[in-house]
Write a structure and sequence with these properties.
The protein is an alpha/beta fold. It has a single domain, classed as Rossmann fold (3-Layer(aba) Sandwich), CATH 3.40.50. Helices cover 44% and strands 7% of the residues. The chain has a 4-stranded parallel β-sheet with strand order 2-1-3-4, sandwiched between helices. Strand 1, helix 2 and strand 2 form a beta-alpha-beta unit. It starts with 12 loop residues before the first helix and ends with a helix. The mean pLDDT is 96.
């Protein structure tokens, strides 16, 4: 297993034969606005990096694992007012997740962990529904929802506040994984936006604009650092790797 590429997409079909009985780490993100300083694929990038780091941990322990190709489309209605955002329906999202998980089982994977970085409530519900459908079809799967305890308590003050879309939390993660994709000077010039998305959601707000994010960010991107991003990836990798161990 250690001599195989980390990601399924980088393997040949003959190499992929060595994955029988492995756990698949499925990065799930979205294509949506992340402030003026981060790319539309921020969630996919974060989920991919976290899944890769979790997979490395598992392989070092001798556990068979590989990263599945990421899902880049999701329920993204909160960002619908911003250019470049691509949303799919909840039913489509749930069906897609179910089919990918069941397909992974047919391909020889023993189980799949959803490594999600797109935290819109409608998307979380679709992921959970898709996983349950796959479980009903006989596939072992786990979805460690990082918005819930105990996971959320480990991801920093900004994350816990709910003001964490394209703020310090996500900007730090992108810096640590792909620093060249951050428009740093722009990010450092942005004033903090302390409005909490989680509070806005509880109040019935349905978009970033309604929640008080006219430039599609919440939190303090100017405070982001690569060091904090690496620390956060350690936490995310531990969360996802722990879920994989429990499945295996």
């Amino acid at each position: 297993m250690s001599d195989l590429p980390l990601c399924l997409a980088n393997m040949t079909f003959e190499e992929a034969k060595g994955l029988a009985g492995a756990v698949g780490m499925l990065p799930t993100g979205a294509t949506e606005a992340h402030g003026p300083h981060l790319p539309l694929g921020t969630d996919v990038l974060i989920a991919q990096e976290a899944a890769e780091r979790a997979t490395r941990r598992l392989r070092r322990e001798g556990l068979p694992a590989a990263v599945l190709p990421p899902l880049a489309y999701a329920v993204t209605e909160f960002a619908a007012d911003f250019a470049g955002t691509l949303s799919i329906s909840p039913d489509t999202a749930a069906s897609l997740v179910c089919d990918v998980l069941v397909g992974a089982g047919r391909a020889g994977f023993a189980a799949v962990v959803l490594c999600n970085a797109h935290l819109e409530p409608g998307n979380l519900q679709a992921l959970r529904q898709g996983m349950e459908l796959a479980r009903a079809a006989g596939m072992k799967a786990a979805f460690p929802d990082i918005t819930r305890r105990p996971h959320a308590l480990r991801l920093g003050e900004e994350f816990r506040s709910g003001a964490c879309h394209a703020g310090r939390y996500e900007t730090s993660l992108v810096m640590a994984a792909a620093p060249f994709r951050v428009r740093r000077e722009l990010g450092e010039s942005l004033p903090a936006n302390p409005k909490s998305l989680s509070v806005a959601i509880r109040e019935g707000k349905k978009s970033f604009l309604e929640a008080g994010g006219p430039r599609a960010y919440f939190g303090a991107p100017a405070e982001a650092t690569e060091a904090e991003g690496d620390r956060l990836y350690d936490v995310l990798a531990d969360i996802f790797a722990t879920a994989a161990r429990e499945l295996l």
